[in-house]
């Protein structure tokens, strides 16, 4: 079982982190993490997530 979250963007534009055992909100889109349905990595939002964490020093809400 993995320990890192996947990052989703909500309809409102907020980025949230969600762990594997939690269902993401229906209106959210995976932007950085592993897509289990299609068995592939999604990296389209990697730079946006890294910018928030490392450059802007923002906290991303985590759903467990």
Explain how this protein is built.
With 64 residues, the chain is of the alpha+beta class. It has one domain (6-63). The protein has 1 helix and 5 strands. It has one helix at 46-55; strands at residues 6-9, 15-18, 29-35, 40-42, 62-63. The mean pLDDT is 91.
Summary tags:
16% helix, 64 residues, 1 helix, 5 strands, single chain, five-stranded mixed β-sheet, alpha+beta
Q: How many domain units?
A: 1
Stretches where pLDDT falls below 50 for ≥5 residues?
none
Class by helix and strand content?
alpha+beta
Strand order of the largest sheet: 4-3-1-2-5
Task: Provide a concise account of the structure shown.
This protein is 16% helix and 31% strand. It has 64 residues and is of the alpha+beta class.
Topology:
Blueprint: E1 6-9, E2 15-18, E3 29-35, E4 40-42, H1 46-55, E5 62-63
